[in-house]
Design brief:
Helix content is 12%, strand content 42%. By secondary structure, the chain is mainly beta. The N terminus is likely disordered. Keywords: Signal.
Length: 285
């Protein structure tokens, strides 16, 4: 019996050792252009162009100033963006809601970059604040606010967040949003026993209208007088970019020893980065 047990242990050890494999990860990828440009009908157009770097390189990204960046609106060429140095490009033009845009980057040393986006409608949001208590030290009132997003036709993804300035310091909604509603994406939800509903959402609250199209999306959220709440409607590309970026940040902040790698979303053909769009509704409480 003892010999049989010993044989099983030895066999299991051999099988375990035979499953080991040394894996060498190749971080030496070819350098490509990296473009970041988000269109917003409330702003003129800015873009940033740099060279990519491998994951082991912690230096700053090298800017690219000698490229030609052309923007198209509904298939018609608008103009080339002007290089302002340090990888920054600018075009004095306000993009239009619901129009389609294509961006093309030309450089003699790299493949041409291309990407497209369509600017979503501005969110239609109503709100009704209810005063809870006055905070004398901060000179503001704590509020309970009822929000209603009146969803427009077509698939839409909203991102809710707030900012508040107190004694010259601006605070954001990172890790402080406790909201309960069935249309909220729980990808960044964490348990917090001190929160109103026992959990919070880190950085943003992502609201999807899937299953609620053209409905009224109502929910309650805390607030403060003097703060600004923002409702951002993102196109499909910017939506995926924000979600993957938040996942990556939460991954880096977590304490678990084994984490699934997060790939930051990119829609840039032949390169890296993001070309997306959004429309924002801002409410001052």
């Amino acid at each position: 019996m003892k010999l049989k047990t010993l044989f099983i242990i030895l066999l299991a050890s051999i099988l375990f050792l035979s499953c080991e494999k040394d894996v060498t990860i190749d971080f030496d990828r070819p350098v490509k252009l990296c473009l970041n440009c988000i269109l917003n009908p409330d702003s003129t157009i800015t873009a940033r162009l740099t060279l990519s770097r491998n994951i082991e390189n912690s230096t700053t990204f090298q800017p690219v100033d000698d490229a030609t960046i052309i923007l198209y609106e509904n298939g018609t060429e608008l103009n080339a963006l002007t290089s302002e140095g340090e990888g920054n490009y600018y075009l004095n033009y306000h993009p239009k809601t619901q129009n389609e845009y294509k961006i093309v980057v030309l450089h003699p040393d790299f493949d041409n970059l291309e990407a497209t986006t369509a600017i979503p409608l501005q969110p239609v949001v109503y709100h009704q604040p209810d005063t809870l208590e006055y905070i004398e030290a901060g000179l503001f009132y704590l509020l309970d606010v009822h929000y209603e997003i009146h969803d427009t036709p077509g698939p839409t993804n909203y991102w809710f967040y707030w900012k508040h300035t107190l004694h010259g310091i601006t605070y954001s909604s990172a890790g402080l949003l406790s909201i309960k509603a069935p249309f909220i994406d729980d990808f960044n939800r964490t348990i917090d026993s001190d929160a109103k509903y026992g959990f919070v959402y880190s950085y943003y609250v992502r609201i999807s209208d899937v299953g609620y199209e053209e409905s009224t999306l109502g929910f309650e959220a805390g607030g403060k007088t003097g703060s600004f709440t923002h409702f951002l409607s993102a196109d499909e590309h910017y939506d995926k970019y924000i979600k993957s970026s938040v996942k990556a940040r939460l991954n880096s902040e977590g304490e678990l020893p084994f984490k699934e790698p997060v790939q930051i979303y990119s829609n840039i053909e032949n390169g890296y980065g993001i070309f997306g769009s959004c429309a924002i509704t801002t409410i001052k409480l």
